[in-house]
Amino acid sequence: MKMVFRWFGEGNDFIPLEHVKQIPGVEGIVWALHDIPVGEEWPLERIKEVKLQAELHDFNIDVVESVNIHEDIKLGLPTRDFYIENYKKTIERLAQVGVKVICYNFMPVFDWTRTELFKELEDGSTALFFEKAKITNIDPIELVKEIAENVSLTMPGWEPERLKYLTKLFDLYKEVTEEDLWKNLHYFLEQIIPVAEENNIKMAIHPDDPPFSVFGLPRIIINEDNIQRFLKLVDRPANGLTLCSGSLGANPNNNVAEMVRKFADRIHFAHIRNVRTYENGDFIETSHRSSDGTVDILSIMKAYHDIGFTGYARPDHGRHIWDEKCRPGYGLYDRGLGIMYLWGIWDSLERLKQGEKQCYQSMEI
Ligand code: CS2
Ligand code: MN
C-alpha cells in the first residue's frame, strides 16, 4: 500500500507540504490544477511546476485527483468530442511527468453533495453532514448559495463559474436517463482507455457521493453490481477504480470489504474513510476508527491486506478538530490521525503474517 495525501496546491490549501511530510509513511501528494476550467487542456508547464514543488519535499505526484469530465461528455452532446480530445492531450502530458493514476468521477452537475459543512459531533469537532430531508426539500440553487457562504476556497466540482449555469444544466439533464449516462460513459471510456494504456496510466473512477440520486439527477457508480457493469464496459486493467469506502458506505447495503476482494486487481486507488449512517438516511463523516462509524474500516483494511494491495491509498476526508482552520473535510490533523490508524492496522497485519511464516518455518524444522 502506497500512502498518499491530497493537497490542493500552493495558495489553494492551508496546509504546507512541510507539515504533510511529518505524517509517517506518506510518499506522494494527490493533486490537480484546480484553477483550469473543466474541459480545458492542462498546460505542460503548469504540470511541471507541481512536480518541482512536490520534489522539493521528496513527494511523488503519481496520482491526480481529479481530471474532471466536462458536462457535455456526461450529457452526450455533439461537442463532447472536442472535450474528449482535450482530455487525451492532458493524459499524454501527465504521462510525460510520470503520473500513474488519474482519478475522476462521472457524477452529473455536482461532485460530493452535503447539506452542512461544519455539523457538530458529540465531542465538539465538526464534520461534513448529509441530511436527507433537507436535500429532498431544498432548491439546489439555495443549497449552493448556503455552501458557498461557508467556505473561502473554491471546492472542486462546486466551481462558481459552472454553478452559474445550474438551471440550464438541470434542464439539460431532464432528458438524460441512467441508461443514457451509461452510454455516455461507455463512449468516453472507449476513446480514453486506449490512450491511457499507451501512456501507461491507469484510469480510476470515483464512486458517486452519496451513492444514490440527489435532486433527481441520474447516478450510476453506486453499488457492487453497477461497478461490475462498469468494469465490463471496457474490460481492461487501465479501466479501474478509486474505491471510496466513505462514498459507498453512505449506503449501508454496500459491503466495501467484499468489493475490495471482488475487484482487487482493478483497484488502483483506495479512499479510506468512515461515515456514520442513520436510519432516516442521514449520514455524517466520523474519525477513521471502525467503532466511530458504520463502515467497517478494520475489515476493509484486512481485505486490502489479504489481496496484497500495492496500489495508492489516502485517508480521504477527516473531521475538523483542535480548532483547525481548513478546507471542509480536508484538515491536516484528522487526516493525519486517520493515516496513523490505517498504518496501525496494516502494520499489525504485516507482523501477524510474518509471525505466522516464522511459526510455520520453525514447525518444518
Ligand atoms: C471525495 C471526492 O467525496 C469524496 O469521497 O473523495 O470529492 C473526490 O475527490 C472526487 O469525486 C473524485 O473525482
Ligand atoms: Mn473519496
Automatic annotation (TrEMBL):
Gene3D superfamilies: Divalent-metal-dependent TIM barrel enzymes (3.20.20.150)
Keyword Ligase: no
Protein's organism: Alkalihalobacillus alcalophilus ATCC 27647 = CGMCC 1.3604
Record's catalysed reaction(s): D-mannonate = 2-dehydro-3-deoxy-D-gluconate + H2O
Entry keyword set: Iron, Lyase, Manganese
Lineage, top ranks: Bacteria, Bacillati, Bacillota, Bacilli, Bacillales
GO molecular function, one term: manganese ion binding
Listed GO biological process terms: D-glucuronate catabolic process
EC number: 4.2.1.8
Protein name from the UniProt record: Mannonate dehydratase
Pathway: Carbohydrate metabolism; pentose and glucuronate interconversion
Protein's job: Catalyzes the dehydration of D-mannonate.
Pfam families for this protein: UxuA
Cofactor(s) required for function per UniProt: Fe(2+); Mn(2+)
Protein family (similarity comment): Belongs to the mannonate dehydratase family.
